[in-house]
Amino acid sequence: MTTYKTIKVERHGPVGWLINNRPDVLNAMNNTMRDELADAWLELDRDPEVRVIVQTGEGRAFQTGADLTEVASDGVGMERYQDSLVDFDLHFTSWHQNVTKPVIAAVNGVCAGGGLHFVADADVVIAASDATFFDPHVSVGQVTAIEVIALAKKIPFEAVMRMALVGAHERMTAARAYELGMVSQIVDPPETLREAAQELAEKIARNSPAAMAATKKALWAALELGLTDACRVGAQHLVGLWGHPDQTEGPLAFVEKRAPRWVA
């Protein structure tokens, strides 16, 4: 098990937790955190004991994007990210690491800028009732693109454009995020967020890992493709599971009225 400086990795039953852990700077992402996130996603995805992954933040924020103090202080600036962006090699996110297990983003407090990567890339997003969302890129002279483009595939375009153009001068509440479909559950009181995330993750973890992985691939592919092509790809994932032991075990467990014994 790897030791990390800027994140915590924990395991609670079938649930793996990835916790952003720079609370003194609202979990802003420095270079070390970027590298550690890349490793942690793979560590949890490859762990056979982990069925579902939850990401959250320590302290008052979920994640607030690039550490601007680091960006402004070393003379390199945003150019530090040029190669990874040109090559579209953003391994600090679950989507770019091709994580096959279900991912829940449990948003506590502030989620801003690059923190929206993790909201856009998660399979399920829940939020504490006091969570807020905003994208300050244009307010600090930067272009906002990848995070909000991904969000535009999941929620109404106008809401995304407003967030991108208003920048740091307006925050979206958890209630508004729920109305838009950016989050599927609001947790109140906020201090019970991790408990709610663990409960949801354990529900998901009861299902067939193989079936969930194929389902996840099929549904994410639907955001990339037109309706007919998406259905064709979905059919391939459906048929691809035929012959897998879980496909026989599921109906048998139902008939025998017992918990299924899935292949890990």
From TrEMBL:
Identify the CDD domains for this entry.
crotonase-like (cd06558)
Return any one Pfam family short name.
Answer: ECH_1
- A molecular-function term among this protein's GO annotations: catalytic activity
The superkingdom of the source organism is: Bacteria
SUPFAM superfamilies hit by this protein: ClpP/crotonase
Classification via PANTHER family:
ENOYL-COA HYDRATASE, POLYKETIDE BIOSYNTHESIS ENOYL-COA HYDRATASE PKSH-RELATED
Q: What's this protein's family per the entry?
A: Belongs to the enoyl-CoA hydratase/isomerase family.
The protein's name in its UniProt record = Crotonase
Specify the species: Nonomuraea cavernae
At the highest ranks, the source species' classification is:
Bacteria, Bacillati, Actinomycetota, Actinomycetes, Streptosporangiales
